[in-house]
Amino acid sequence: MTSDEIAYLISLVAIGDRKAFATLYRETSPKLLSICLRILRDRTEAEEALQEVYVKIWQHAGVFAAGSGTPSSWLAAIARNQAIDIMRARKPVADELDSAYDLADDDPSPEIQTVIKDEGRRIDTCMEELEADRAMAVKKAYVEGQSYQELADQFGVPLNTMRTWLRRSLLKLRGCMER
């Protein structure tokens, strides 16, 4: 439907033509509903807003001046303003937050996060001092949770040798971390 046709329908609505109003509704309601829905993000509220939009169109059609803008923008402005008015009428989120109890933040503080990162870097540096196969065995045992027997099988060494590798590697790591 062209702008001129919509403007003509609005002018007929201004003089109380119900048939023109029904046609205007049929042609423009999908777009106006999408505007309300985009702003309100709730279909029920958007549909209620749309009803109010068309009440305002019926009441104020005589105010529309065809030379002052496109009829589509005039209709969209009414829909947008109605949706915003409904949003403003809602209880503000800030009030809900102010009245809520303080919630504990389980995340570590920035200071603790920095300490953890520094410790991680120190551990990585100390791991680099170990032989590559020993470092890999330590990671698989203590990070991935593999058993001594699984590690012994993977590395092709006896079980007691794997235990010795891990014990000596942990002693080296502790010594490095204490420096």
UniProtKB/TrEMBL annotation:
Domain RNA polymerase sigma factor 70 region 4 type, first and last residues per copy: 121-173
GO MF, any single term: DNA binding
Origin superkingdom: Bacteria
Keyword vocabulary terms for this entry: Sigma factor, Transcription, Transcription regulation
InterPro entries, per the entry: RNA_pol_sigma-70-like, RNA_pol_sigma-70_dom, RNA_pol_sigma70_r2, RNA_pol_sigma70_r4_t2, RNA_pol_sigma_r2, RNA_pol_sigma_r3/r4-like, WH-like_DNA-bd_sf
Pfam family, one: Sigma70_r2
Residues annotated as domain RNA polymerase sigma-70 region: 24-91
One GO term of the biological process aspect: DNA-templated transcription initiation
Record-stated family: Belongs to the sigma-70 factor family. ECF subfamily.
PANTHER family named in the record: RNA POLYMERASE ECF-TYPE SIGMA FACTO, RNA POLYMERASE SIGMA FACTOR SIGZ
Protein name from the UniProt record: RNA polymerase sigma-70 factor, ECF subfamily
Annotated organism of origin: Rhizobium tibeticum
Gene (UniProt): sigK_2
